[in-house]
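Sample intake sheet
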Amino acid sequence: MIENLVYDYGLSYFIFINILGISLSLYDKLASKKFRRKRVRERTFFILAFLGASLFIYISMVIINHKTRHKKFMVGLPLIVIFHGLIFILLRKLIFIV
């Protein structure tokens, strides 16, 4: 019962945070071309990445070729993905004992 609840809320959160991350990546790409003000701060991308959107922010940036020259994104985001993977494995073993 509790596993289903955690799974449902976790999945909803994961979908929401990643849609937000992808949307901000697309918006920032358009903003960089159209209007140089009103850009998304790099700190915002990293906050969203730590909150769980790192994989899809990275994928969207590579697909739309946005911020791919910034080493802190091309190295930092994959490191956060690895960190999230390790946390997920650890939590799965500790909480669900699977």
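Comment: Residues 58 and 75 are 10 Å apart (CA to CA). The mean pLDDT is 87.
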